[in-house]
Amino acid sequence: MIAQEDLLRLLPLALDATDLPLPGRVSGKVRDGYDLPEGKRLFITTDRLSAFDRVLGRVPYKGQVLNQLSAWWFEQTSSVVANHLVSLPDPNAAVVVAAQPFPVEVIVRGYITGVTSTALWYRYSLGEREIYGYRFPEGLRKNEALPEPIITPTTKGVGGAHDERLTCAEVVEKGYLDAATWDEVQAAALAIFKRGQEVARRAGLILVDTKYEFGRAPDGRLLLIDEVHTPDSSRFWKAESYAARFAAGEEPENFDKEFIRIAYAEQGYRGDGEPPVMPDALWAAVSQRYIAIYEMLTGQSFVPGAYPIGPRLEANLRAAGYLEEKK
User: Fold this and answer.
1) Is residue 153 domain-shared with residue 33, that is, in the same domain?
2) 170 CA to centre of own chain
3) Rounded to an integer, what distance in angstroms lies between the CA atom of residue 27 and that of residue 43?
4) d(Cα 140, Cα 33) in Å, to the nearest integer?
5) For 146-195, how does the pLDDT look when each residue is reduced to its tens digit (9 = 90+)?
6) What pLDDT, on a 0 to 100 scale, did the predictor assign at position 120?
């Protein structure tokens, strides 16, 4: 485990943004994308941390963990559905097929939990019983397992807008996707989630819920894109202590970025207005947690890339032929 003092020292060097001499730059909450020849895209996963649909801070090694962990999961799930990954020319970079992304995010939930405004438990705690088109009975407890995983889609918030909740029926009714494509997406999402739960269980973790994004390849194939089963896109709990903690009415041992959401929620912040300033020690703890979950899931030791990232990234992209050599 990387020492806290080393992570605190790296905080100012965490990768906030890139500005590569490549066309088609698009910057999302966490990734910067660029066009490459032959129908490919280059994605750089930065160290930005997003929650409540806002970028809240930067975390050393976070981008590397997300990039490499997603690549590992793409391999684990490739027999379930094809994905967009081509190669990793750098710990923070991925070359992918330039798919046409679908305009909905596919959230799969195995438990009723969460503190964000779109979370099942948050809506349930407000007295709602019809949520995302599903009818929930009285008497459910926070962090309780659902009988079967369910899909709760949302729109993709752009330009700082929050994601908006949809029902599965509304995805087709409102014209986001045609019925056949949506059926294909739902079947793939549930199958990937099942595989993810199996793999997580072997690592001593519970995959609680997750977000998937899908797109269409130029040849018409459905592709899993963006990232998969990372601490950013997924909620994980430690399996060993879950039952006892649930029985005692205690929160599970979360092993993702949920403790960031909880820390902000305890300050009264759920995404609206100016976020409070949090201590550096919190961001160092996030880094340690991301690295730990990478090692637990993959069974591999995390090999930290060199900081600052910019020079290393450009050198690796030049070596891979994606950037011109410096004159």
Assistant:
1) no
2) 24
3) 10
4) 42
5) 999 999 999 986 555 567 889 999 999 999 999 999 999 999 999 999 99
6) 92
